[in-house]
Design goal:
Shape: elongated
Distance between the termini: 83 Å
Number of strands: 15
Largest sheet: 8 strands, mixed
Helix content: 10-25%
Strand content: 25-35%
Number of helices: 3
Structural class: alpha/beta
Strand order of the largest sheet: 3-4-5-8-10-12-14-15
Length: about 200
Amino acid sequence: MYVRGMDSPLFSIPDHLNKRLTLFILATVLVVILASCFIVNSPLLLSKFKNISWDISNSKEDNVKATLVFAKNHTYILLISGKGEMRDLIDINNPHLSEFYNISVGWTISIISVVIEEGVTNICDYAFLGCTALNSVIIPNSIKSIGNNAFSYCPNLTSIFYEGTVAQWSTILLDSGWNRESSIEFIECIDGIVTVN
């Protein structure tokens, strides 16, 4: 290989080194390609841009899961679906969730909406603790209880839509601290409004 100036070579690379240099360049390119594939397919990176789901069933008889859906502008929608009781929403040993939740402050990402589907029978303690961006919640009439601090420290949540009647809402077992330090003013039922104290 020659690097040429005007009419004569400036320097030359012997053939045996030329082959080694070519192999080195090819190996470097391959390493860069493989490294970029690993980074792009990393679960922690993907979880910020794709939906992730995890089981939150309370027992073998239950079939409840949570799905975190990437919305836009670094915001998320949390969907709770299935049949039966949910256990703790967050498993701190789940590596996919540790980047989204801090045990001392709750959720560390911007969840703007929570949708709980018909069939889920409870909302667990601390379920939406610290969801400071949360402004929309839909609860089905299958819910029988709402746990301690379930909606605590949700300053932008002023109302909840309940897919049942005022009479059905009054039968839900509400923990005394279910909405501590939140801004919930009323529950919108299908047949009227319930004021929250």
